[in-house]
Design brief:
The chain has helices at 40-57, 95-103, 112-123, 184-187, 189-199, 217-225, 229-253, 268-276, 300-313, and strands spanning 4-11, 15-22, 27-34, 63-71, 74-76, 81-86, 89-93, 107-111, 132-137, 141-147, 150-151, 257-261, 289-292. The chain is an alpha/beta fold. The structure holds zinc ion.
């Protein structure tokens, strides 16, 4: 008999990944496409297209038991509802039901950061401790608290949006959420680019900065290594901000580990600079340490699709 598998779909800001996974989170086959997430309706159409195309063009290797979808924004995984990409881009869509009716399979949905933290729980740091924080630092900043093996999701599936907290670096920039100087406004990939634009007349720089062009985290960190004054300021305040954020979270849930995911966190220079700024006394009970995820950061959320679906099918509380 063929082993049970799920079809995972990970919708990200720039790409959509689809693949067949087994219960251990192994990816048997996967495809990647550019994503369209300007609206939920557009994204849902694309999700349906990539699933239909997968069934048409790929040979399934296992016995498919469910479709499991990761989304950006606020998702109620219990009710199967996708509420919003962000508050100004919101439409209540009963996505699990819609996809299930179309493809005649059980469907589960989840937020992508929640899904990545489930992958950490089953396939990564969770093997050592059930109390940890998963922090994703990419275009934006979000995290998840896992306490006593339970993922904290909150009353409105909106827990862990910690990019919108303040950490004592006041850049006077109003965030998309309405607050001023949220850590995401200067310490995420997009935030660092915005800071390069905001501070470009204050510090000399070799960085190429043209109107509205997003300067990548990698470009900024490369310039930092060449002692570029603007890049130095932007990288120093970003890594300070992330360190402060981590210490605030450590004081909140007393974790034994902090795991970092996302493109920026995966940069060794950024990561090392941030580590130096952690206070030993604050971090003394984080016995398993602060680490970059050991799961491939490009695939962690897709692997989380499998973890989520198999947990749900087994009748266990998955989120
Ligand atoms: Zn904010």
């Amino acid at each position: 008999m063929k082993k049970e598998t799920v079809l995972g779909v990970d919708l990200g800001g720039t790409k959509i990944l689809i693949g067949e996974l087994d219960q251990a989170g192994n990816i048997l086959e996967s495809k990647s496409f550019r994503s369209k997430v300007t609206s939920q309706v557009e994204a849902v159409e694309q999700i349906k297209e990539v699933i239909a195309s997968y069934f048409e063009n790929e040979k399934l290797q296992g016995q498919l038991v469910a479709i499991s979808i990761d989304l950006v924004g606020r998702v109620d995984s219990e009710k199967g509802i996708w509420y919003e990409i962000h508050p100004e881009n919101a439409k209540e869509i009963p996505l699990a039901q819609e996809i299930s009716q179309r493809f005649n399979l059980p469907v589960v949905i989840n937020n992508d950061v929640s899904s990545a933290s489930l992958a950490e729980m089953e396939l990564g740091i969770g093997k050592k401790t059930k109390d940890f924080i998963y922090l994703n630092i990419g275009t934006g900043i979000a995290g998840r608290i896992i306490a006593e093996g339970q993922l904290l999701k909150g009353g409105h599936s909106n827990a862990g949006e910690i990019g919108h907290s303040l950490v004592g670096i006041n850049n006077h920039v109003r965030c998309v959420c309405g607050r001023i100087a949220c850590v995401e406004t200067f310490a995420s990939g997009l935030g660092m680019s915005n800071e390069v634009h905001r501070l470009k007349n204050k510090y000399p720089t070799q960085l190429e900065i043209t109107d509205k062009h997003r300067v990548s985290g990698e470009e900024i960190i490369n310039a930092f290594q060449k002692n570029d004054p603007l890049a130095k300021e932007v990288v120093e305040q970003a890594t300070k901000g992330i360190a402060e954020l981590i210490m605030n979270l450590v004081r909140t849930s007393d974790p034994e580990a902090v795991i970092l995911g996302g493109g920026l966190a995966n940069n060794d220079i950024f990561y090392e600079l941030m580590l130096e700024k952690l206070n030993a006394n604050t971090m003394r009970f984080v016995t398993e340490g602060v680490h970059q995820t050991e799961i491939d950061p490009r695939l962690i959320a897709l692997k989380g699709c499998a973890v989520h679906a198999f947990k749900k099918l087994a009748g266990k509380e998955a989120q």
